Amino acid sequence: MNDDKNSNELPRRRFVAFSGAIGAATLLTGAGAATGRTASAAAPTPAHPVPDTCPTPPPGGAPTCPPAQLQPLCGSPSDNDPLWRDVQYCTQGTPLPPGQFPPDCLKVTPDYVVLHGRPSNRHNFLLTPSCRITGIECPFIETSGAPNYWNDAWENARSGGGVPVQYPNIGLGINSKSARFLNQLHIHLAGVRASTQRRLQELEMTGRMATSPAQWNAVQNRVPVTGSDGSGDRTYRALRLPGLGMNLFALLQQYVVNPSGLSMANQTLIVVPKMTAAGFAGAFYVLNSDSSLHDGTNTCDHLLVYS
Question: Cβ distance 255 to 217 under 8 Å?
């Protein structure tokens, strides 16, 4: 299920697999019961945000989707992934198969849907495209015609946003192909610990963080950051940006993946807005890693806080 298949990480991976949409997670609770696990679907749904009462096609026209020739890499609309079925339920009212409970469609737009993650709380959401896009390996998301899903994630997660993350420090993240469980692209809208925020600001102050995408892959900008899961330091390529107007997927491909002969499918991306006592400080820390780095990782789960 991921590149780091050691005995300590695998149980967490299986738990994080349930941090997909409520409907997708609920579909899997039978397997959890069979292994003696408590079904996470039993957790109460928080009262806020309030989901849409009825899934209807969103206003504003059709989304921009990958062309048919990219289906081998980006997935087919006829695929049967549970999270993709949740998206179709929210955007088109497509009936779900028996045993899959309907998700809470917290926000539905032509380009994306926001759903609860698992465990269901006020700082664990998912933003997933309205189009069929399997994940980070889909070349369409690097093109100029693709929606800016990262900026959409921030505009929802920020204080006062569409589906705000109720946590002192916000973290946005996407897993690599090998580290994810649900095969519909989804950006986690979650939290990060205060210690992670402090560490990133220290790295910025000491000049250990790229200030332009062209510097992102430089050795001096590969930095250790301690995660939230007790796994110790992991190495990330660190970049500071003043905004999310640029396509982060395209920047990663151009300045990290291609020059190093890496695979986009193996990458993880994490975005941490810079915060001070006064609130958002007008900058973003963009972290990338993969298993080619010493102590690197291909999952965002070491830094994000879901529960």
Answer: yes
Question: Alpha helix (H) ranges present in 140-237?
Answer: 149-157, 194-205
Are the C-beta atoms of 123 and 98 separated by less than 8 Å?
Answer: no
CA separation for the pair 71, 40 (Å, rounded) = 33
- Rounded (10°) CA dihedral 40, 42, 48, 49: 60
126 closest CA partner among 100, 147, 156, 101? 156
Give the model's pLDDT for residue 65: 94
What whole-number distance in Å separates Cα of residue 95 and Cα of residue 20? Answer: 19
β-partners of residue 238 are 287
Sketch out the chain's domains with CATH numbers.
10-43+69-191 (3.30.428.10), 194-289 (no CATH)
Pairwise pLDDT comparison (229 vs 208), residue with the higher score: 208
Tokens of 229: 């899961």
Q: Record the pTM.
A: 0.84
**Per the structure block, which two tokens stand in for 140?**
């369409």
Q: Are 243 and 258 in contact (CB under 8 A)?
A: no
